[in-house]
Design goal:
By secondary structure, the protein is of the alpha/beta class. The protein has 13 helices and twelve strands. Helix 5 runs parallel beside helix 6 and helix 9 crosses helix 10. It binds pyridoxal-5'-phosphate (PLP). Pyridoxal-5'-phosphate binds next to helix 3.
């Protein structure tokens, strides 16, 4: 007997759940793209995109996904043959680096593996060795959605500054923006890469780059840039047509207007961060309890080093794959695959999964996923420790307790 009737829940780290209000805002006739409402709301959207990254500097919008925004960042920062220092902490760090290599950028890779954060000391050492200052930028993923490692961006900025190196700090925040605390200007970030379908709670289709005045200066001589990806008209232009390099993404803009209002003006960014923190702590508490039986473990052992929007875990002996399948076919919940931990052809591939708690999620959704996982473990005979749901509930209760 399957229990899939009812609303399904895609609990993978993007696309995240789009609020009904966002979808409703998009469900309308096409607007005039030359004047009127869409032109007027775009100015407010750009101002609010600055607010969501906590910057007063520049933002460019692309009709693209996160991969497109990676390419846009590379194209604006680098000239052919320039060097990039990449600190990879999972599959997404390597993905960005592969794009850079294929574009003709000379990538120097520091691979921190699949379950560690970047060590700022090693970044400082690599920069100190670059006495000619040929490294144009340091590329780092804030939360690597595969390993769910969360890097300490202020510490990486401090490492760059400690050796007096002029490299830009470029951050892939696709998985963390509007979920995890992220402060572009205060933390000295030069470039942030984002996309619409994660913390911003929209369907896939928009990529974003936030960039500093310094990054803008560097881009003036970068020769990899091509007309569509050039951030200068998009980020510093004044005419509506310059912002999109062609027809505006009309319906995504209406959706974005709604999601930014929900995040910034209704819930408030600090509360958004706190909600994700609490939901993450419930997921972690459940896994710790399940893990008492052996065979189940979180990928990142240090809670400080874990992203707040997605959790990667291992359930041995193919348990993760079996559980994912059971949840989808029996209970209407889809969990994320274990990305980059093993190749799909390897048996270990079925030992990894990810639970997303990203974007438009609340306590009952996350507790529902955990309870459904518990049911699946029982149904499938996966050994697991007791008390996971009590522990998750306690984490939610702690998170909601009034501050003394
Ligand atoms: C999702 C994601 C991407 C890629 O985004 P797409 O929209 O799938 O191209 C890049 N980096 C991180 C950290 C992500 O989570």
């Amino acid at each position: 007997m399957a229990y899939v009737s009812g609303r399904t829940y895609l609990a993978i780290p993007g696309p995240s759940v789009a609020p009904d209000r966002v979808l409703s805002a998009m469900h309308r006739a096409a607007p005039n793209i030359y004047e009127g409402e869409i032109v007027e709301i775009t100015h407010g959207i750009i101002a609010d995109l600055r607010r969501v990254a906590l910057t007063t500097q520049h933002v460019a919008i692309y009709i693209a996904n996160g991969h497109g925004a990676w390419e846009a960042a590379n194209a604006n920062m680098f000239s052919r043959g320039d060097r990039a220092l990449v600190a990879a902490t999972g599959r997404f760090g390597h993905g960005w680096a592969e794009h850079a290599t294929r574009m003709g950028i000379d990538v120097q890779m520091i691979d921190f593996g699949k379950s560690s954060v970047a060590d700022p000391t090693r970044i400082a050492e690599a920069l100190a060795a670059d006495t000619d200052h040929t490294i144009r930028a340091v590329l780092v993923t804030h939360v690597d959605t595969a390993s769910t490692a969360r890097n300490d961006l202020p510490a990486i900025r401090a490492a760059i500054d400690s050796v007096g190196h002029p490299a830009l700090l470029a951050v892939d925040a696709v998985a963390s923006l509007a979920c995890d605390e992220l402060r572009m200007d205060e933390w000295g970030i030069d470039v942030i890469v984002g996309a619409s379908q994660k913390g911003l709670m929209l369907p896939p289709g928009l990529g974003f780059l936030w960039f500093s005045d310094r990054a803008l200066e560097v881009s003036r001589t970068a020769d990899l840039v091509s007309p569509y990806w050039d951030w200068k008209p998009r980020g510093t232009g004044t005419e509506f047509w310059q912002f999109f390099g062609g027809t505006a993404p009309t319906h995504h803009l209406y959706g974005l207007r709604e999601s930014l209002t929900m995040l910034l003006d209704e819930e408030g960014l600090p509360n958004v961060w706190r909600r994700h923190e609490t939901l993450a702590s419930a997921v972690w508490a459940a896994f710790v309890a399940w893990g008492a039986a052996g065979g189940i473990s979180l990928n990142m052992s240090d809670p400080n080093a874990r992203g707040r929007s997605v959790t990667a875990a291992r359930i041995a002996n193919g348990g993760a794959g079996a559980l994912r399948k059971w949840l989808e076919t029996e209970a209407g919940v889809t969990l994320g695959i274990g990305l980059g931990m093993a190749l799909p052809a390897e048996p270990a591939y079925a030992d990894f999964l990810r639970v997303a708690h990203m974007g438009h999620v609340n306590a009952h959704m996350t507790l529902g996923v955990l309870a459904t996982m518990e049911a699946g473990m029982q149904a499938l005979g996966i050994p697991h420790g007791p008390g996971a749901l009590e522990a998750a509930a306690a984490a939610i209760a702690r998170g909601s307790a009034p501050k003394p």
